[in-house]
Amino acid sequence: MKHSLHLYGTLGPACASKEKIQAMFLAGMTGMRLNLSHSNLDDCEDWLQQYHEVSERMHIIPELLVDLQGPELRIGTLDTPLSLSSGDIVFLISEKSFQEKKENSDIFSRILNGKDEFFIIPCPEILFSYFDEEQEVRLNDGKIVLKISAPLESDIFCAEVIKGGELTSRKSIAIKDLTVPLPVLTKTDKENLKLLRKYHVTGVMLPFVRNADDLITLRKELMADNMDYIRIFAKIESIEGVEHLPSLLPFCDEIVIARGDLGNAIPLPKLPAVQKRISTTCRHAKKPFMVVTQMLASMEENPVPTRAEVTDIFQAVLDGASSLMLTGETAMGAYPEEAMKILSQTSEEALRFKY
Ligand SMILES: Nc1ncnc2c1ncn2[C@@H]1O[C@H](COP(=O)(O)OP(=O)(O)O)[C@@H](O)[C@H]1O
Ligand SMILES: C=C(OP(=O)(O)O)C(=O)O
């Protein structure tokens, strides 16, 4: 009996060339994911054309997954990356009034007490009804943490950096322990869904799935355009998603254990147990599942993985994962081909050990 795995890379600036895509296919990649939180399908026409050209030349029928925006909040576009350090002052401004207010230094000087360095982050408007003093705000899957210190105006809040880091455009933003109610699909998601056939998309990933209705809404949208052949991947990345897992299984083709945001929703030491529990539920229900995020995070900067990373890949395969996916390692890392090679070789070893 042949056991095989689906191995995905994320398409991004670091691997968007014919040579890199070919090298990743040769390394064992079976498909790619495009994260539509960073660009639209039409913006990536050239990348996708290259992807399909390479796969055709290599006689590969490639999978192409798109990851929708869904009910996930992200910051807006920054002019330049921000280098945030503990103690820095940050102003969170509604995306709608960002252009107008960012130039008005009088607004900010009220709170700066002579300090002249501060940062401005454009945020989704809806968050301003939820922001409150003392709240913890997590950016980029919790890599950066802010604490809200004071409201300035209804659409401007001041915050202090608690945990610093480099912040670039369109990273995730979440308020600790607070769920903001959002529609399943954004307007942009609906526009992108209309283009799936044009770009030969084979699967759609829905972020932050909360209940079966979210999946039913997506399926109806696909069926309305005669695209019910497209596979639905349900990303589990919130406590609500974990709690509703059994009821989601009939309405999706594959479960995704999205450890980036899931690791934001629960204390990190509890993440491995939650991953194991989701894997077990899927295995018992014979539902394919994917493990994703930080599988080889150190390879964004280094050509060699850590021992812990290869062990994590190996364990995911032993647990029965049907798919593994790289994210930043291939989208923006320095070693996309090498990372795909390690993912493929380590998972092969795990399959050999298992069977
Ligand atoms: N389509 C894209 N266009 C530009 N940059 C991208 C794209 N996809 C990914 N990236 C970059 O690679 C990073 C890692 O990708 P991914 O894990 O999909 O994003 P995120 O963690 O923001 O959800 C992103 O934060 C972004 O900086
Ligand atoms: C893959 C994930 O989603 P995103 O890239 O949107 O953070 C994740 O949260 O693990």
Automatic annotation (TrEMBL):
<dbReference type="InterPro" id="IPR015806">
    <property type="entry name" value="Pyrv_Knase_insert_dom_sf"/>
</dbReference>
<protein>
    <recommendedName>
        <fullName>Pyruvate kinase</fullName>
        <ecNumber>2.7.1.40</ecNumber>
    </recommendedName>
</protein>
<dbReference type="GO" id="GO:0016301">
    <property type="term" value="F:kinase activity"/>
</dbReference>
<dbReference type="InterPro" id="IPR001697">
    <property type="entry name" value="Pyr_Knase"/>
</dbReference>
<keyword id="KW-0808">Transferase</keyword>
<keyword id="KW-0324">Glycolysis</keyword>
<dbReference type="InterPro" id="IPR015813">
    <property type="entry name" value="Pyrv/PenolPyrv_kinase-like_dom"/>
</dbReference>
<dbReference type="GO" id="GO:0000287">
    <property type="term" value="F:magnesium ion binding"/>
</dbReference>
<keyword id="KW-0479">Metal-binding</keyword>
<keyword id="KW-0670">Pyruvate</keyword>
<dbReference type="GO" id="GO:0030955">
    <property type="term" value="F:potassium ion binding"/>
</dbReference>
<feature type="domain" description="Pyruvate kinase barrel">
    <location>
        <begin position="8"/>
        <end position="339"/>
    </location>
</feature>
<keyword id="KW-0418">Kinase</keyword>
<comment type="pathway">
    <text>Carbohydrate degradation; glycolysis; pyruvate from D-glyceraldehyde 3-phosphate: step 5/5.</text>
</comment>
<dbReference type="InterPro" id="IPR040442">
    <property type="entry name" value="Pyrv_kinase-like_dom_sf"/>
</dbReference>
<keyword id="KW-0067">ATP-binding</keyword>
<keyword id="KW-0547">Nucleotide-binding</keyword>
<dbReference type="GO" id="GO:0005524">
    <property type="term" value="F:ATP binding"/>
</dbReference>
<dbReference type="GO" id="GO:0004743">
    <property type="term" value="F:pyruvate kinase activity"/>
</dbReference>
<dbReference type="Pfam" id="PF00224">
    <property type="entry name" value="PK"/>
</dbReference>
<keyword id="KW-0460">Magnesium</keyword>
<dbReference type="InterPro" id="IPR011037">
    <property type="entry name" value="Pyrv_Knase-like_insert_dom_sf"/>
</dbReference>
<dbReference type="InterPro" id="IPR015793">
    <property type="entry name" value="Pyrv_Knase_brl"/>
</dbReference>
<comment type="similarity">
    <text>Belongs to the pyruvate kinase family.</text>
</comment>
